[in-house]
Write a structure and sequence with these properties.
binds SN-glycerol-3-phosphate, about 220 residues, alpha/beta, about 55% helix
Length: about 220
């Protein structure tokens, strides 16, 4: 399963990239606001840092302007994936932009039917928002499973990019279901290696080692 980092925080991306934990990056208007950076500048920096797909989101809501913005974002670097919302205008923009050879990430997906029409529109990635469905007491992971089944039934090539990931449980469950990608905040990715029994066991090893009076170097 690929890990994309869901942030526009360049130092945080760089730290995880050094560990081999970054197969791509996703941003959105809220993450750009949080970064305090210019979208074109920070996206260019991220594309230079991470060879994998880097999602940058359009903010227009009508297809012609979405297409124009998408072309502008795609011109930043070859690894740009243009992010469009799951609306009919977004799907029209998706069809045109993928037809021109650009990667497109269709975002704000909350139903299996939305994922179905995104695949038919040629989306490179579909971004179902797991956490936001959980927030309204629906099971976001059920949506990932539904989309996996539907895409496999018809051999759709659109990659499931599970988004709005809030916990390490979301990550492992998405892996069990067979999502192609999870995009998660740096904090969630860092938490994947943590376990209290590992800390406890290491602590005991070091205490016992100290009692041997030995050194390796
Ligand atoms: O990629 C989408 C993600 O940034 C949304 O996450 O936690 O705001 O639902 P969240």
């Amino acid at each position: 399963m690929k890990f994309f980092v869901d942030t526009a925080d360049v130092p945080a991306i760089a730290e995880l990239a050094e560990l081999g934990m970054v197969d791509g990056v996703t941003t959105n208007p809220s993450l750009i606001l949080k970064s305090g950076r210019d979208i074109l500048e920070v996206t260019r920096e991220i594309c230079a840092l991470v060879p994998g797909p880097v999602s940058a989101e359009v903010v227009a809501t009508e297809a012609p302007a979405m297409i124009a913005e998408g072309r502008r974002l795609a011109a930043i670097a070859p690894n740009i994936a243009v992010k469009v919302p799951l609306t009919w205008d977004g799907l029209r923009a998706c069809k045109v932009l993928t037809g021109e050879g650009h990667m497109v990430n269709v975002t704000l997906c909350f139903s299996a039917n939305q994922a179905l029409v995104a695949a038919k529109a040629g989306a490179t990635f579909i971004s179902p928002f797991v956490g936001r469905l959980d927030d309204i007491n629906l099971d976001g992971l059920d949506l990932i499973a539904d989309i996996r089944t539907i895409y496999d039934n018809y051999d759709f090539q659109t990659q499931i990019l599970a988004a709005s990931i809030r916990s390490v449980n979301h990550v492992s469950q998405c892996a069990r279901i067979g999502a192609d990608v999870v995009t998660a905040p740096p904090s969630v990715i860092k938490a994947l290696a943590s376990h209290p029994l590992t800390d406890k066991g290491l602590d005991q090893f070091l205490k016992d080692w100290a009692k041997t009076g030995q050194k390796i170097l």
